[in-house]
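Hi all, posting the design record for the shared folder.

TITLE: backbone redesign
STEP: 1 of 1
STRUCTURE INPUT:
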């Protein structure tokens, strides 16, 4: 553990890249997810005020709720669009420039948020949420791609976890800034919703000091000299010759294959199991039940005796739990391995959901059960943060060759946004009809994903793409000759264990 921390400290530019990309990347995503809870009453009031002043028409409560739901959900639509745009943009402009340009989208959204109350226009909030979604969708892919490609192989796990850590930081910051003592007031809520603009400005002024991704420069631009200079700036005096040698082998195995589309990823039989892994892992991330647990945390806290006006403060504990756990995972992941954290996390989450179903169902009958439910909520958040949240985002960059990375991130993030949107639409109905038994649906997804990863996905720790591809072949190909085949032959995408399908 200390060896990896020392290596990270020996690469101060990589450490700076983690912080700069995180603040302008997944921090924005996490902040947008949590920040809308606090000012909801003020925004609903603005919706009605806008209609009265502009159309001389007062909305009914259900109409206001419908518009409010759309304002919240349009963030997911923007995120889906941003995810679809991320692949082509990162390939055309590069990872760094794509992140830079993406900040202007967030700044435009922040200006609309800040001016919405003065202009008496809820439509400005709607457009801003859509822009925030685009910014988060592009940033989620571009940030992960950039950091994974800049980090030494021995630090890829820690760097990958930082993506989830800044998401947790954003979610906690949204909860914290939204309390009444800070920006959660009728006067200041536009500044709360416009806070994303300040994070974007920070990245806009600091990111230019970082180099472009060395993998992108070598494998996609073919500029070995610029790639070596980028390595030197990022890693300082550390030896990067082995990493450069691995990249040259990967480049030779690709035979100058250009960037592939998502459709071509689906058509590639040699990457069939990598595709299954992305589909299952990213689907389960949203269908794991984390949003259901956060939703029920208010009911559990209330049943445990927390006064209603103090629930928002108590709920900060859930966000803080996720943040602390994610930070801890950042330190231990290189010693434990990503596969172990991922499948054990899902198995532990499924057990916790089963117990939580029982305790929430009976908590009104037995006086001490709410306290058990409260403990289980924190356990679930712990297992989620240290497992799926920490290891899922970097997966496409670790298990796919360079020409398929953009397509893999596009697919994974698209699934993530579609799942978030569908869950937002269906979850209220599920809670209304199933109540605490909705946990059982999420339990199934957690269990299936955990078992799939345990038996079908190789460990990626300290391994190159070539080695991981060979391990996928070894695990899934019955043909002895295909198991003996060199991994360089497989990345050309022609012959592999495709005969199995």
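Okay, here is what came back for every position:
SEQUENCE:
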């Amino acid at each position: 553990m200390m060896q990896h921390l020392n290596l990270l400290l020996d690469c101060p530019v990589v450490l700076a890249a983690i912080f700069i990309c995180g603040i302008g990347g997944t921090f924005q995503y996490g902040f947008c997810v949590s920040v809308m809870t606090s000012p909801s009453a003020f925004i609903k009031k603005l919706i009605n005020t806008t209609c009265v002043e502009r159309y001389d028409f007062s909305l009914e409560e259900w109409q206001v709720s419908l518009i409010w739901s759309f304002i919240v959900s349009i963030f997911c639509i923007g995120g889906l669009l941003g995810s679809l745009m991320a692949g082509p943009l990162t390939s055309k402009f590069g990872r760094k420039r794509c992140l830079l340009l993406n900040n202007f989208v967030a700044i435009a959204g922040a200006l609309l948020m800040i001016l919405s109350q003065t202009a008496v226009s809820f439509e400005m909030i709607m457009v801003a949420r859509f822009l925030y979604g685009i910014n988060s969708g592009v940033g989620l892919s571009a940030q992960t791609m950039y950091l994974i490609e800049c980090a030494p192989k021995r630090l890829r796990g820690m760097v990958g976890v930082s993506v989830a850590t800044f998401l947790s930081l954003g979610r906690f910051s949204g909860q914290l800034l939204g309390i009444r003592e800070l920006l959660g007031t009728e006067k200041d809520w536009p500044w709360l919703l416009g806070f994303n603009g300040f994070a974007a400005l920070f990245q806009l002024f600091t990111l230019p000091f970082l180099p472009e991704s060395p993998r992108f420069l070598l494998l996609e631009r073919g500029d070995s000299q610029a790639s070596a200079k980028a390595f030197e700036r990022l890693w300082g005096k550390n030896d990067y010759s082995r990493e450069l040698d691995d990249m040259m082998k990967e480049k030779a195995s690709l035979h100058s294959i250009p960037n592939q589309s998502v459709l071509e990823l689906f058509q590639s039989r040699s990457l069939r199991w990598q595709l299954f892994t992305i589909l299952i892992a990213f689907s389960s991330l949203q269908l794991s039940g984390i949003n259901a647990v956060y939703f029920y945390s208010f009911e559990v806290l209330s049943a445990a005796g927390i006064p209603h006006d103090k629930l928002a403060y108590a709920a900060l504990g859930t966000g803080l739990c996720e943040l602390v756990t994610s930070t801890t995972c950042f330190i231990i992941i290189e010693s434990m391995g990503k596969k172990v954290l991922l499948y054990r996390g899902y198995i532990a989450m499924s057990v916790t959901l089963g117990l939580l179903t029982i305790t929430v169902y009976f908590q009104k009958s037995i006086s001490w059960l709410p306290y058990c439910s409260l403990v289980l909520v924190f356990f679930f958040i712990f297992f989620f943060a240290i497992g799926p949240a920490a290891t899922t985002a970097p997966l496409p960059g670790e298990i796919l060759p360079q020409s398929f990375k953009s397509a893999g991130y596009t697919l994974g993030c698209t699934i993530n946004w579609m799942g978030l949107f569908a869950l937002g639409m269906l979850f209220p109905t599920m809670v209304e009809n199933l109540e605490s038994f909705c946990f059982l649906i999420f339990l199934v997804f957690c269990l299936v994903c955990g078992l799939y990863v345990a038996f079908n996905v190789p460990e990626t720790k300290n391994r190159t793409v070539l080695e991981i591809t060979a391990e996928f072949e070894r695990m899934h190909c019955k043909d002895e000759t295909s198991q003996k085949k060199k991994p360089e032959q497989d990345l050309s995408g022609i012959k592999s264990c495709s005969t199995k399908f």
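COMMENT: The two ends are 41 Å apart (CA to CA).
Let me know if anyone wants the other runs.
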